[in-house]
Amino acid sequence: MRITTGMMYDRSLSSLMKSNERLSKATDQANTLEKFTTAGESPTGMAQKLNLTAEIAKYKQYASNGTNVQGKLTQEESVLDSLNTAMGSAYTKVQQIVNGTNNSTDDREALASELEELQKHMLDLMNSRDDSGEYLFSGSQSKTPAFALDSSGQYQYQGDSGQRFGQVSQTVKIATSDPGDSVFQNVPTARTASSSTMSSISVGDNSAFSSFYASHYDPANSANNTFTVATVAGSPDTYQIKDAGGNVLQSGNYTQGDEISFNGLKLNPGVASGSSTSFALDAPSSDNVLNSLGKMITALRDPTQTTDQINTLAASTQVHLSNSQNSVNQTIGTVGARLSSLDAITNSNTNLSGISQDKKAEVSEVDLYE
After folding, report:
1. What is the pTM of this model?
2. Which of 18-27, 148-157, 218-227 has the lowest mean pLDDT?
3. C-alpha atoms less than 13 angstroms from C-alpha of 291 in its C-beta half-sphere
4. Which of 154, 211, 146, 207 is closest to 181 using CA atoms?
5. How many CB atoms lie within 10 A of CB 169?
């Protein structure tokens, strides 16, 4: 075959163009650090790259969601801590009543004013909003204040029982809020007993009565919640307190007009020997602590309230404050557990995102040394 000058020129030109093409591709790869830019260059590689890019984007979104969740939970924890402190202060103020250190009209008014300020502070905290203007404790009704005063002067919960969540991984959502009904509204008040036939009945020791109530109250059969006080004439007169089944729970000497102490209750049957009377455990009730403080404030400003009446109400208010603090502390524990879980998930996401980034680099990025 005869080689002409034109053929040699064409071959040299083709070789030069290919070299320039390789140089251009190598330059582009060095600048972009990408092995390929189109699916035509590497169909399988491009598919893997797109999948890994989408996966890495998900982890970035989870990280952003996690930051948002952490901010909301940290704020809720701070608010609950402040509420716990305020409730503790209110408990101490009410204890002054029980101790009998505030019996004058001026003392009662001063104490009522202090409790009123604490009540306002608690309401403000219960109606806290996050940085986006949503109420923390209104459940799904995040644009509605959690608590508001109604026409009857009672604080009512206006939200619902819903929770808001943040997606922090492919399979995990973490609650970013707690509804105010479970944290503040559905808090047990002090348990009570009543009688339509006795001279008087009151709770003298809330702790002892609460234990008795917890072990004897029957929510399924109200008849089992009635107890009989039977008196017997003799020398001396005696009494027996029996449950609905006729079992004797307590007995002793009886003097008409004297009080009988029974599992934290102060009973005054007020009947003559040989007669009987009864009392019943009242159905359990729940309320928010704002209303309990409101009753205490009203009583302190009411000159017709006796010291005994105020002391009895103060003891009940303390029980409700203590129960409210327990509810708040339990919620703080729950929030702390969520934050710990979030930290673990965030660390896991960071590691998984790093693995995906390494895989993507292996598939689609050039090795400069190579």
Report:
1. 0.83
2. 18-27
3. 20
4. 146
5. 18
